[in-house]
Every structure is written in structure tokens, then in C-alpha cells.
């Protein structure tokens, strides 16, 4: 009677093992999800508080701090500056990043491979050190920090995002399609516009989105290259938090979280963001 | 153009660090000897590098299960939702995220209210301006950098290998330990590199959660450059910090190459 029992026993043991592993990993994931979501949820809830302190849970709900944002001139100007910088940074990063990825994907020379590493290096190098370096550089050139320099420095830290997603899209591009287009008499420009671009478009768009968010959010570079006139939103908020924690900051933060969410959902819809990042 | 705006600032930075004054008149290695002679500077560098290790470990403990669960998700929709949640923090402005943590960790913050309500403590626990706080917040902020590379590698593992392992009688834990983890090692190392580099250089989180008492390298560089107006010394600090981070990243990527050859062998 022992023979039929043995496999059943073993299956039972394996099930228990599988269950314990699954339970542990799912529990850790659930904890991590809570840990990842809590800050965003709390910012949004706090921003609707009716009291003048950041106490949580809020004693009552109101929109008064959002209304107060209409009078926050400095904050509005900083937000406008940030949007402008992020817009130009994205435009330049997407153009340069796409061109560079096309060059990198087409070539196999070691120099181009080295350029690939070089372009990626702003991702691991301390951005603060780069911000400081560009400040010194601008002064050595005999200029003072201004908006164009701020944008250029942002481009350096944002290009890697475009490069990454575009290169990933290019490696999935079948070269036979390009050959077919050329042999059918299309000019290189036409091939690029009608074949390459539509096929890598989503990769480029995802990279552009990441570049926009990275620029909009950048502190370490802007810290050195922005002055009173070109003050950007994250720096303004950062100083607000360091000096006086006022609830308008919470309202502005709530707006930023919502803005981010909307942009992310749009990016997910149109560029398949989560798929591009894999 | 990229060369002009990325490499030349760095070259000027190195140049300035070898001079005695901001006008760059006299050459000197004084800034470097000053750094090495002072235990205070060395301890800041050490604390910063160690902070990165701690935060990276926390990310790994949570990030690996997230990648594992989402790689095995039955429906692609769940995977997308999970990934969306993982990416959300890194997309939200760093200042906003840090601000949220101040609300959570503060003396009147949520964690303290829960602890007081459950009678776990008699008085509020100090979480803000402590290293534990900084590590936790860094881990939350940089989690996607750990999850995404692991997930990429993990979803490329041939499912037949896992089935083979089970068919040969290995339990789930053994399969995880002997098959899944070794095969996903390149992803783990890539994740560690990105997370580590992001954690040690996360200026905003370090200063807002760490406060003025906990000094890490980025704040040290900033206060030397802007506060003390000592540009050459700040430049030397930047160079030393960059070299230290690069050395660690390089060592980790060597490890990645080794693990890859090991897997293929």
C-alpha cells in the first residue's frame, strides 16, 4: 500500500513549498506596492486639507490651498520656466538622441560603441558634479548662466533616456524592410520617414516622455545653472520645503502628482510605456 | 555637440581641482591632500558609499520579488499595472516624493500617530533626519531602477528550464535558488549598478530627509561650492566622488561580465 502513497506525498510537499515561496514573494510585493504608492496617495489627500498645518489625516476637506495657488505668482513663474525648459530639452534630446541611435545602430566600429558608453554615462555619473562642472564651464567661457545653457545642460542628462528606448526599438527593426524600401526606389529620407520612423516611433515617444519628466524634475543641474529669473519649479518647491512648510506646497505637489499620472497614462496608451521600459 | 557640453565641463572641473584659486593661476594638488588629510572628509565619503549599499540592499529585497511576481503574472494586464505602480514614483517629481515622506515620517506624521495609537511608543519616534529614514526613502524612490533590469532578464529565461528543474524533483525553493537566481544574476547586477549610482547621488532626498546634520558627498560639494565659495576644493570633491562611484560601477559591471560567462559556461 505504500507505493501509491509515495507520489501523492511528494506532490503534497512540493505544493507546500510552492505555496510558501509564492506567499513570501507575494507578501513582499504587496508590501512594496503599499510602500511605493503611499507617498503619492498621501500628498493628494493632504493637499485637500482645510487646516493650515500638514497634519494627517486632514481634519476637514477643502480646496482653499488650490485656490491659494492662483495668487502664488512666484510659483507660477517657476512652473512656467520649468515647462519651457522641459519643452526645449525634450525637443533637442529627441532630435539628437534619434540621430545618434541611428548612427550607433548602423555602425559596428569600436569608436561608435565607445560613443554609446559615453552617451549613457550621465545616467551613472553624479548629476550634481556635472551641474557644478557646467557652472564653472559657463563662467570660463565668459558667460553667465542663462536659459539656453540651462537647456543644454538638461539635454546632456536627458539624452540617455531617448537613446535607450530608441536603440531598443531599432534592434527590433528588420533590416530587410529598409533594403526592400531602397530597392523599390525610395530615397534614404523617404525610407526614414515612411519605414524607419513609423516602426521606431513608439520607442522615440517613450524616450521623449522620460526626457520631459527628467528635465521637469531636475534639481542637481538646475541648482547651479538657474538664477532668480530662470528659477524652476522643483528648486522653488525645494526651498519652500526647507524654509517654511506651507500647505500651498502640498497643493502644488498634488497638482504635480495628478499631472504626472495623466501624462503617464497617456504615455502608456500611445507609446506603451511599460512595454518600452522592459 | 554632446562632447562640447558634457566632456569639456568635466575637463574644466578636473583642471580647476588642480588649482589653488578659482581664477586658475597656480597649479597645486593641495585640494586633494587637504581631502585625504582630513578624517571628516573621508568619513563623509565612506558614509555616502555605505548609504548606497544599504539602500540598494533594501531595493533588492523588495525589487526581486516584484520582478518575480510580475514575470509570472498570469495576465499581461496585471504585469502592466504592477509595472505602472513601480514606475510611478520615479516619474513623480523628486521634491514632491520627498515632501510626502516628510508628512509620513515627521513627528506628527502618520507612522508616529499609528505607533502612538497602538501604544507601541510613549512619545514620537524620530524618523526624519535619521539614516534609517534616508535609506527607506531612497529605496522607495529608486525601486524601478532595480525592478526593470531584473524583469527584462527574468522574462527571457526559458520556461522549459524551470519545468525541467521541477520534473527532476527540485522543489520551488530549490528551483529559485539553483535556476532562477543564477540565470537572472546579470539583471540583478545591472539593477544594483543603476540603483547604487542613483542612491549615492540623490541630492534632494539626502538633504531634505537627512537634514543638515547628516552630511553626504553631494551636500558637501554643494555647500563647499555655494556656501563656502571654495570652488577649487568643491571641484576636487566632485572629482573624488565621481571616481569613487565610477570605480564601484566598474567593479560591479566586471562582476556582471563574470556572471554572464559563468551562466553560458
What does this structure look like?
The complex is a heterodimer of chains A (278) and B (265). With 278 residues, chain A is mostly helical. Chain A has a single domain, classed as Orthogonal Bundle (MetI-like fold). In chain A, helix 3 crosses helix 6, helix 6 crosses helix 8 and helix 8 packs antiparallel against helix 11. Chain A is globular and about 70 Å long. With 265 residues, chain B is an all-alpha fold. Chain B has a single domain, classed as MetI-like (MetI-like fold). The longest helix of chain B is centred in the C-terminal third of the chain and has 34 residues. Chain B starts with a helix and ends with a helix. The mean pLDDT of chain B is 83. The chains are: A mainly alpha (278), B mainly alpha (265). At the A-B interface, helix 1, helix 5, helix 6, helix 8 and helix 9 of A face helix 1, helix 3, helix 4, helix 5 and helix 7 of B.
Key terms:
heterodimer, A: 278 residues, mainly alpha, 12 helices, globular, disordered N terminus, B: 265 residues, MetI-like fold
Number of helices of chain B: 12
Rounded mean pLDDT score of chain B: 83
Q: How far apart are the termini of chain A?
A: 52 Å
The number of helical elements of chain A comes to: 12
Can you count the beta strands of chain B?
Answer: 0
What is the CATH first-level class name of chain B?
Mainly Alpha
Task: Note the main sheet of chain A.
Answer: none
Main interface: chain pair and counts:
A-B, 83 and 84 residues
**Gross CATH architecture of chain A:** Orthogonal Bundle
Quaternary structure of the protein: heterodimer
Q: What's the order of the H and E elements of chain A?
A: HHHHHHHHHHHH
Query: Would you tell me which CATH topology of chain B applies?
Result: MetI-like fold
Amino acid at each position: 500500500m505504500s507505493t501509491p502513497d509515495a507520489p501523492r506525498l511528494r506532490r503534497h510537499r512540493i505544493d507546500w513549498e510552492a505555496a510558501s515561496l509564492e506567499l513570501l514573494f507575494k507578501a513582499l510585493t504587496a508590501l512594496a506596492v503599499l510602500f511605493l504608492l503611499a507617498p503619492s496617495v498621501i500628498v493628494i489627500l493632504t493637499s485637500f486639507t482645510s487646516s493650515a498645518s500638514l497634519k494627517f489625516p486632514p481634519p476637514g476637506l477643502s480646496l482653499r490651498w488650490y485656490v491659494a495657488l492662483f495668487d502664488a505668482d512666484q510659483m507660477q513663474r517657476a512652473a512656467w520656466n520649468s515647462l519651457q525648459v522641459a519643452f526645449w530639452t525634450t525637443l533637442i534630446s529627441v532630435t539628437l538622441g534619434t540621430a545618434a541611435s541611428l548612427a550607433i545602430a548602423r555602425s559596428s566600429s569600436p569608436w561608435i560603441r565607445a560613443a554609446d558608453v559615453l552617451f549613457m554615462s550621465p545616467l551613472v555619473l553624479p548629476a550634481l558634479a556635472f551641474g557644478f562642472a557646467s557652472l564653472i564651464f559657463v563662467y570660463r567661457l565668459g558667460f553667465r548662466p542663462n536659459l539656453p545653457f540651462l537647456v543644454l545642460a538638461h539635454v546632456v542628462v536627458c539624452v540617455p533616456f531617448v537613446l535607450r528606448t530608441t536603440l531598443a526599438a531599432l534592434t527590433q527593426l528588420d533590416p530587410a524592410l529598409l533594403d526592400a524600401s531602397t530597392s523599390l526606389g525610395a530615397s534614404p529620407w523617404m525610407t526614414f520617414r515612411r519605414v524607419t520612423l513609423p516602426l521606431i516611433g513608439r520607442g522615440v515617444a517613450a524616450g521623449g516622455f522620460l526626457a520631459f519628466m527628467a528635465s521637469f524634475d531636475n534639481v542637481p543641474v538646475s541648482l547651479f545653472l538657474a538664477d532668480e529669473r530662470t528659477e524652476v519649479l522643483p528648486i522653488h518647491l525645494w526651498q519652500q520645503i526647507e524654509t517654511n512648510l506651507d500647505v500651498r506646497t502640498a497643493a502644488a505637489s498634488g497638482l504635480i502628482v495628478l499631472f504626472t499620472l495623466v501624462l503617464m497614462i497617456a504615455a502608456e496608451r500611445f507609446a506603451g510605456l511599460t512595454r518600452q521600459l522592459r | 555637440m554632446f562632447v562640447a557640453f558634457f566632456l569639456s565641463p568635466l575637463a574644466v572641473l578636473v583642471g580647476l581641482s588642480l588649482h589653488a584659486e578659482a581664477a586658475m593661476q597656480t597649479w597645486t594638488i593641495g585640494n586633494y591632500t587637504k581631502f585625504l588629510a582630513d578624517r571628516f572628509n573621508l568619513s563623509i565619503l565612506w558614509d555616502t558609499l555605505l548609504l548606497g549599499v544599504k539602500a540598494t540592499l533594501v531595493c533588492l529585497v523588495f525589487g526581486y520579488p516584484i520582478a518575480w511576481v510580475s514575470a509570472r503574472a498570469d495576465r499581461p494586464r496585471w504585469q502592466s499595472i504592477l509595472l505602472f505602480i513601480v514606475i510611478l514614483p520615479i516619474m513623480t517629481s523628486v521634491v514632491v516624493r520627498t515632501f510626502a515622506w516628510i508628512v509620513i515620517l515627521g513627528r506628527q506624521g502618520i507612522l508616529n500617530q499609528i505607533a502612538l495609537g497602538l501604544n507601541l511608543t510613549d512619545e514620537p519616534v524620530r524618523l526624519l533626519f535619521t539614516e534609517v529614514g534616508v535609506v527607506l526613502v531612497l529605496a522607495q524612490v529608486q525601486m524601478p531602477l532595480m525592478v526593470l533590469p531584473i524583469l527584462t532578464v527574468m522574462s527571457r529565461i526559458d520556461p522549459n528550464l524551470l519545468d525541467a528543474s521541477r520534473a527532476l524533483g527540485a522543489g520551488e525553493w530549490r528551483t529559485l535558488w539553483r535556476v532562477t537566481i543564477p540565470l537572472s544574476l546579470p539583471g540583478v547586477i545591472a539593477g544594483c549598478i543603476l540603483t547604487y549610482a542613483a542612491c549615492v547621488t540623490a541630492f534632494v532626498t539626502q538633504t531634505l530627509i537627512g537634514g543638515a546634520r547628516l552630511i553626504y558627498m553631494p551636500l558637501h560639494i554643494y555647500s563647499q561650492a555655494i556656501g563656502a565659495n571654495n570652488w577649487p576644493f568643491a571641484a576636487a570633491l566632485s572629482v573624488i566622488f565621481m571616481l569613487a562611484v565610477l570605480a564601484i560601477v566598474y567593479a560591479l559591471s566586471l562582476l556582471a561580465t563574470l556572471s554572464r560567462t559563468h551562466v553560458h559556461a
